[in-house]
Amino acid sequence: MNVLIANSKLQKSDYLVDIIHQHDSQINILAKTSTIDDTLKFISQNASKIDLTFLETRLKDGSIFDFVNQKSISSPIVFTSNQKQDAYEAIKANSLDFLLEPFKADEVLHAINKAKLHMPSLNEDKQNYKKRFLIKFGDKIQFKTTDEISYIFAEGKIAYIVTSVANRKYIIEHTLDELEKRHLDPANFYRINRKFIVNINAIEEARNYVNSRLKLILNPPTDFDMVVSREKVSDFKNWLNL
């Protein structure tokens, strides 16, 4: 995904970039602009490359709505502002989303996931998600299908899959980052924190937990506390379609 960020404050742009790259380091930030003139110029020269634009409603040289309603921007737009009343203009301008500053990580991630649904190239990659994984079982090599996986966890540099039937764990030769970003279908698997990825079919219920987090109850039961990190709670609920 190629992203353009237009914001009057470099500090806010940098903070937005940090949030984006914590979620997905492979997202490419094409440019960070701060004025309407620079933004328009960049869009006109790079329109075909831009997959998503974060557009502050008021840049250094004026209101963005003065040209958004006149100029055609082909990429989805997420408007950002520190003024709640700008949400109405954002809706009129057919925005993908509206983010109130200061940015909240879960809201930024939700906007990115919505944008991915508008990217045919990403949706076409779904057919390339793995259906099975080779696993180590003593001195033997076997395979387990993704349907058999209840959850995946990491201990140090080693990742394990845990099966739903026998509730047994097996070493898998992939990192959680590789599994999350390249190998697992995001419609079925979600990384709830740095240590765990869960299969949606294994989730029995979600409960409110301390510090605005969620605790998951899986079937079969786990030996771990399966806790959704606070910054991912909103995005996780959207993934569940709650």
Describe the protein's architecture and organization.
- The chain has helices at 10-23, 36-46, 65-68, 86-92, 105-116, 120-124, 176-183, 233-240; strands spanning 2-6, 28-33, 52-56, 58-59, 62-63, 77-81, 97-100, 132-137, 140-145, 149-155, 158-163, 169-172, 189-191, 196-199, 203-209, 213-218, 226-228.
- It has 8 helices and 17 strands.
- Helix content is 29%, strand content 33%.
- It has 2 domains: 2-124, Response regulator (Rossmann fold), CATH 3.40.50.2300; 129-240, LytTr DNA-binding domain (OB fold (Dihydrolipoamide Acetyltransferase, E2P)).
- By secondary structure, it is α+β, with helices and mostly antiparallel strands.
- It has a 7-stranded antiparallel sheet, with no helix packed on it.
- β8 and β9 (140-145) form a beta hairpin.
- The radius of gyration is 21 Å and the shape is elongated.
- α1 (10-23) packs across α5 (105-116) and α5 packs parallel to α8.
Q: What attributes does this structure have?
A:
single chain; about 240 residues; alpha+beta; Rossmann fold; OB fold (Dihydrolipoamide Acetyltransferase, E2P); 2 domains; 5-stranded parallel beta sheet; 17 strands; about 30% helix
